Amino acid sequence: MRSVRKLIVTLLLAAAVPAYAQVDAPPSAPATAAAPARVPWSSMSSQQQQLLSRFQGQWDSLPPQRQQALASGSQRWLGMTPEQRGAARDRFQRWQSLPQQQRSEVRQRWEQFRALPPERQQIARENFRKFRNLPPERRRELRQEWQRATPEQRQQMLQQSRERRLQAAPHGSPPGPRGHRPEH
To answer: Of 41, 79, 109, 138, which is most buried, counting CB atoms within 10 Å of its CB?
Structure first.
């Protein structure tokens, strides 16, 4: 359970990092679909251009994926409330304080999460919400229990969790992918 929780926490942290966090990140793996289109500097709003002004001189030399990430990230940033921006800055500072190896692990876990089918992603998100709603002491106990467990015990804990989830599903619901029942 802890590895799933850790995965979810790190994935949500990675997802919550504001667009400017991607500035120092290596470009993501190339997409398998058609090559992404370039984003002309002139196509962005003046607010976006101001936010991304440090890239103006090199904008045309940036890879199209990077241009798209920066443009969409700046648009998200501009749509945030001051409180959301403050929280995003805090998350970014935490992200920057992580050692490079840990950031690489987070990125890898994020890619693993994104590769999951949507149903499995939803289950992971729901488990994360449930875990966060537990009292801090119970979360600490669960983390310690997971850390003390052997790999075999961890697999058993995960299997028990899956079985409980299946039992909690409405009767008559057909099992979904990999034995999971769809959530209603």
So the answer is: 109
Contact partners, residue 63, CB within 8 Å, separation at least 6:
27
- Residue 164 Cα to chain centre, angstroms: 26
- The structural domains of the chain, with segments of one domain joined by +, span 1-25+41-116
Q: Where are the alpha helices (DSSP H) in 100-168?
A: 100-115, 118-132, 136-148, 151-168
- Residue 100 sits at φ, ψ, to 5 deg, of -55, -40
Rounded Cα gap, residues 113 and 7, in angstroms: 8
Span 48-75, pLDDT tens digits: 999 999 999 999 999 999 999 999 999 9
Instruction: Report residue 37: phi and psi, to 5°.
Output: -85, 150
Tally DSSP H helices, then E strands, for the chain: 8, 0
Neighbours of 35 (CB within 10 A): 10
Q: How far apart are CA 59 and CA 71, in angstroms?
A: 11
Encoded tokens for 137 = 């002491």
The model carries a pTM of 0.52
For the chain, what is the largest distance between any 2 Cα atoms, rounded to a whole number of angstroms?
A: 61
Residue 13 contacts residue 95 (beta carbons within 8 Å): yes
CB 172 within 8 A of CB 115: no
- DSSP 3-state helix, strand, coil percentages of the chain (rounded to 5)? 75, 0, 25
The residues, any chain, with a CB within 8 Å of residue 78's CB and separated by 6 or more, are 45, 47, 48, 51
